[in-house]
């Protein structure tokens, strides 16, 4: 749906020459709608001009690209176009040059907010721009600007005479950052000049992959404490000792709500007395993060230690991801009696054998958290039809559940039908279910082995049947799929942190 205003905006931006000429006569109230129309139709030159002359203190992608009364399309949910992002970055550079060096230009824009743009972690075609490339582009822009202004002493003097003190003119650029060892050097340089530079990088969510302890520490030191909301360090193989070095540097981030440390290689087996102390220290440090709501310790060995690790947290967690953590019944029993049950919206226990000893404690946990739970991942948990039917009563109590991840469990197509019927009746808020390839698609009705024949046609038949059941139930709003990546397309993300 497009409003009359949006239709007019589309007409206006289609004639580049006249809009360029008349931009200064356009009422500023029309800037937001023109901006969205330019992104929609990839009018990059005009987008750059709009940024250069932005008449408000804040330019925020999340607000401008939402579905709104003028245009129902939510551009924020689409992969960002490379040219458009670059046009805005160019625009901001020119904008700064104007306010710094052109007499009579006043600064309106203070904050460019590029957080919350679509990111599924996948590399895309050359026309879209991943979070990784956006991070590099912004870092380079920041370094460029810093160079220009530090070199240009003469200009600087001139500027000083004419305006307020140098340093009071700057734009904060709010971004989510994703860095790995390839881009570390450029981001580090950008962050180190950023505090003195008219373009100031402000990080909201930081993701770092495969970085050494030293590099990670460097980054944390350069990040401005205000505003860091999430730190996600993956594949860094830090171990307990590395994490214990890093965590004290995180307490300065007073609004840090989310800490993700998957593949950190914590291993509680056979701890020496020193390592035992290290584990206790790690737990204490976690307790110092006073805004923490979300924790991911996936793929570490935590058997029997959950009480020790989570017991010191100041506030109940809303999201706990513990995939492949070798948890024991005692861990799940602890959890189901802990303070966290009152708030847990998201739980990931994938990769635990729920088929025997853990089934009962898991059932108990599920019952305890059923009031709040929105997102449940139990992929690769060795669940068969029998286990699933014993779980159904507690599962169906989770009446707010939006996402259910069941991929990689040995369930049959009959088990799937039963699940679907129950879910459709009892889970009105469900949006996405990732189900496994049913076991009866394999030639010997068992779990895949190398020489096991897989019946693709049967899988497709089952898929069609699922779709028909959804149509009959009037629930085509729910996605049932075997695609594990459906998960990262935004449907089930961010149950704890706002976009
Ligand atoms: C870092 O990430 C980028 C983008 O995903 C990729 O092209 C590059 O190869 C990565 N570097 C390393 C060392 O993995
Ligand atoms: C799951 O765990 C039980 C013991 O609790 C074991 O008997 C069973 O073999 C395991 N299942 C698989 C598929 O590993």
Radius of gyration: 26 Å
Mean pLDDT: 91
Strand order of the largest sheet: 1-2-3-4-5-6-7-8-9-10-11-12-13
What amount of the residues lies in strands?
5-15%
What can you see in these coordinates?
By secondary structure, this protein is α/β, with parallel strands linked by helices. 41% of the residues lie in helices and 11% in strands. The protein contains 18 helices and 13 strands. The protein has a 13-stranded parallel beta sheet with strand order 1-2-3-4-5-6-7-8-9-10-11-12-13. β9 (346-348), α15 and β10 (375-377) form a beta-alpha-beta unit. α6 runs parallel beside α7 (131-151), α7 (131-151) packs across α9 (184-194) and α14 packs parallel to α15. The longest helix has 21 residues, at 131-151. It is globular and about 75 Å long. The structure holds 2-acetamido-2-deoxy-beta-D-glucopyranose (NAG) (2 copies). The site of one 2-acetamido-2-deoxy-beta-D-glucopyranose has 6 residues, from loops.
Summarize the structure.
41% of the residues lie in helices and 11% in strands. It contains 18 helices and 13 strands.
Secondary structure elements and pairings:
Blueprint: H1 4-14, H2 16-22, H3 31-40, H4 44-52, E1 58-60, H5 61-64, H6 82-101, E2 111-113, H7 131-151, H8 153-162, E3 171-180, H9 184-194, E4 199-209, H10 213-222, E5 230-234, H11 239-246, E6 258-260, H12 273-288, E7 294-296, H13 306-310, E8 319-321, H14 329-337, E9 346-348, H15 359-369, E10 375-377, H16 385-396, E11 403-405, H17 413-426, E12 432-434, H18 456-472, E13 479-481
Parallel strand pairs: 1-2, 2-3, 3-4, 4-5, 5-6, 6-7, 7-8, 8-9, 9-10, 10-11, 11-12, 12-13
Helix pairs in contact: 1-3, 3-4, 4-6, 6-7, 7-9, 9-10, 11-12, 14-15, 15-16, 16-17, 17-18
The site of one 2-acetamido-2-deoxy-beta-D-glucopyranose (NAG) has 6 residues, from loops.
């Amino acid at each position: 749906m497009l409003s009359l205003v949006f239709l007019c905006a589309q007409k206006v931006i289609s004639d580049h020459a006249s809009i360029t000429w008349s931009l200064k006569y356009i009422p500023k109230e029309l800037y937001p709608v023109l901006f969205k129309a330019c992104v929609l139709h990839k009018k990059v030159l005009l987008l750059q001009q709009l940024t250069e002359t932005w008449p408000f203190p804040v330019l925020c992608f999340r607000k401008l690209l939402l579905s709104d009364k003028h245009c129902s399309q939510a551009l924020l949910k689409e992969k960002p176009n490379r040219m458009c992002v670059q046009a805005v970055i160019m625009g901001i550079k020119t904008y700064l040059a104007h306010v710094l060096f052109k007499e009579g230009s006043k600064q309106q824009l203070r904050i460019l907010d590029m957080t919350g743009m679509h990111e599924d972690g996948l590399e895309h075609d050359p026309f879209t721009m991943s979070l990784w490339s956006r991070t590099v582009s912004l870092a380079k822009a920041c370094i460029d600007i810093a160079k220009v202004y530090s070199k240009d002493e003469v200009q600087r003097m001139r500027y000083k005479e004419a305006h307020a003190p140098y340093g009071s003119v700057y734009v904060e650029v709010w971004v989510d950052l994703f860095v790995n060892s390839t881009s570390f050097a450029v981001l580090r340089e950008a962050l180190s000049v950023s505090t003195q530079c008219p373009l100031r990088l402000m990080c909201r969510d930081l993701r770092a992959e495969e970085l050494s302890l030293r590099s990670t520490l460097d980054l944390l030191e350069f990040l401005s404490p205000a505003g860091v909301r999430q730190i996600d360090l993956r594949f860094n193989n830090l171990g307990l000792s590395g994490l214990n070095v890093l965590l004290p540097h995180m307490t300065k981030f007073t609004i840090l709500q989310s800490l993700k440390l998957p593949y950190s290689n914590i291993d509680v087996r056979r701890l020496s007395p020193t390592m035992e102390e290290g584990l206790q220290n790690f737990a204490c440090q976690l307790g110092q993060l006073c805004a923490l709501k979300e924790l991911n310790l996936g793929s570490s060995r935590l058997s029997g230690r959950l009480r020790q690790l989570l017991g010191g947290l100041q506030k109940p967690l809303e999201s706990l991801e513990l995939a492949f953590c070798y948890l024991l019944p005692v861990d799940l029993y602890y959890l189901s009696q802990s303070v966290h049950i009152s708030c847990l919206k998201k739980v990931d226990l994938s990769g635990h054998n729920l088929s025997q000893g853990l089934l009962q404690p898991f059932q108990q946990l599920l019952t305890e958290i059923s009031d709040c739970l929105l997102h449940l991942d139990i992929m690769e948990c060795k669940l068969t039809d029998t286990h699933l039917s014993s779980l159904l009563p507690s599962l169906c109590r989770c009446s707010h559940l939006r996402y259910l991840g069941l991929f990689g469990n040995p369930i049959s197509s009959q088990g799937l039908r039963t699940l679907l019927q129950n879910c459709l009746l009892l889970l009105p808020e469900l949006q996405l279910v990732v189900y496994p390839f049913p076991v009866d698609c394999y030639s010997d009705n068992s779990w895949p082995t190398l020489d096991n024949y897989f019946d693709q046609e049967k899988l497709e038949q089952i898929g069609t049947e699922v779709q028909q059941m959804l149509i009959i139930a009037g629930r085509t709003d729910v996605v049932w799929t075997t695609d594990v990546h459906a998960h990262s397309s935004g449907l089930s993300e961010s149950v704890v942190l706002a976009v």
